[in-house]
Amino acid sequence: MAARSSAMRSLARACGVVRRIHSTRVLADRAKIRAPIADALKVRQPQAMSVPKDMANFDDADMAILHNLGIETDAVIHNARPGTLYDEALRYEKGSAILSTGALAAYSGAKTGRSPMDKRVVEEPSTIDDVWWGTVNMGLSEKSFSINRERAIDYLNTRPRLYVLDGFAGWDPEYRYKIRVITSRAYHALFMHNMLIRPTAEELANFGEPDYTIYNAGAFPANRATDGMTSGTSVSLNFATKEVVILGSQYAGEMKKGVFTIMNYLLPKQGILSMHASANEGEDGDVTVFFGLSGTGKTTLSADENRKLIGDDEHAWTDKGVFNIEGGCYAKAIGLTREKEPEIWDAIRFGALLENVVFDQRTGEVDYNDSSITENTRVSYPLEYIPNVKIPAVGGHPKNIIMLTCDAFGVLPPVSKLTPSQAMYHFISGYTAKVAGTEMGISEPTATFSACFGAPFMVWHPAKYAELLAEKMAKHNVNAWLINTGWTGGAFGSGHRMSLKDTRAIIDAIHSGDLAKAEYENFPRFNLKVPKSCPNVDSQILMPNKTWTDQTEFERMSTKLSALFKDNFEKFKDGCSEDIKAAAPE
């Protein structure tokens, strides 16, 4: 019995050893299996420089173009196309997403609009006597500009990757300027890829040195202690060094309008009129130019299925005709619907850029009525995305010039034919109105005057642009019209907005020549020629006072608007002829 017990104990010990060996092997096998799984599931922090160098530096990226400027960043994405810039934005920029239409969403940060009070022009010998100094063009010393430039370059040197984009401003090769953009954001590069004229492969190979360079360090603030700075935002332009420096604003529109400001100086110096206007062309080659401030319908009315679009915002008028300055469009997106703006709606696809819009994170559907980020939601897209665009974007001399105003006082006629002096007066005035908002105490519309329909971007005195316009209009026998797309039957709050259908019918009558042959009557106080009839428009709406039920209130509003015009024009009187002064309201 003792022997048997001893044998059993030996067998148990042997089984225990076997079990331990088996268990050890199982654990080892499990560890081998689990190790790669655990490694694959491990959360890793994205490495900014993890993209292989051959993916970050394109073959045509000449590093000397940055090194010569004092920028030593290793990873440079040079003249990338939309697909690459999409990938870069999605990897490295918060708020970026591919939307349901294929467009890219981008977020500009705290600044969702331009900062005109932070714009500066360097006071230097070559341009100091040309610039219209004041609230529009505020001076900056060369020293302060150098500080801002150095600050921008220092910031760009801290970035692990930079984007360089080369493009043209101006569709007419004779008046074309080469622009180079250096930025830390793929969003900015895509925006300027859309907005500048895109060079061909051959043109890029022979691009050479740019005429102007934009340093966009908008994610880094200006130093408020620098002389001439009033905030952490600065957009400064130096015509001597041919540079633009952006600090403290990531809003892409600052680059677009920086280029326009450059053209607004260089072109008039050559006798060419630069214009904040849209333009289109009829089947017979007749060109119409639409001047207008934001909200007047400049983009909407120039998009006409029966006419080819030359451009929606920035143009120049030479001895040969007009040309678009830009390679793309930058349209407001708030409240956008396909019914109202089919061309813009259909342009929102791959390659387009939607700025500061709210969208469903699951579906990528945009809510165009959501203004929780900003009222100034925007979409940028190439000109070619418009189906009836004219490429190259050039045209002949205008036959008609239309000045658009959104008169929220309900005083101005829906259309009036202007004399040459009146055309100059209204061009220099650049009137529209802002409606009452949510601010306490504001119950009436607020007049807005912007000289030449684009004062924030003008460099010369407005008289310079007006003289060029008058000269070209006289030489080419151009008709001038004032069209009110604002209110009728009363001011904002009591009247109603002019119908788009009526405004389009008026413009159709201008293009057909019917309105030029119409019989006219005088509109008192403003002394405007108003047609008695217009095809497909109710004649009752053509004379504003006839649409108001309260004539006393109409007279009060008319008197008020007249006084606002005259008060605004006081600052321009010294540079204007007696004929232009006489075109003022009574």
TrEMBL record:
Class of this enzyme: lyase
Top-rank taxon, per record: Eukaryota
Alphabetical list of Pfam families matching this protein: PEPCK_ATP (PF01293)
Known EC number: 4.1.1.49
Pathway recorded for this protein: Carbohydrate biosynthesis; gluconeogenesis
Keywords associated with the record: ATP-binding, Decarboxylase, Gluconeogenesis, Lyase, Nucleotide-binding
Reaction catalysed by this enzyme: oxaloacetate + ATP = phosphoenolpyruvate + ADP + CO2
PANTHER family, A to Z: PHOSPHOENOLPYRUVATE CARBOXYKINASE (ATP) (PTHR30031:SF0), PHOSPHOENOLPYRUVATE CARBOXYKINASE ATP (PTHR30031)
Name recorded for this polypeptide: phosphoenolpyruvate carboxykinase (ATP)
Species annotation: Durusdinium trenchii
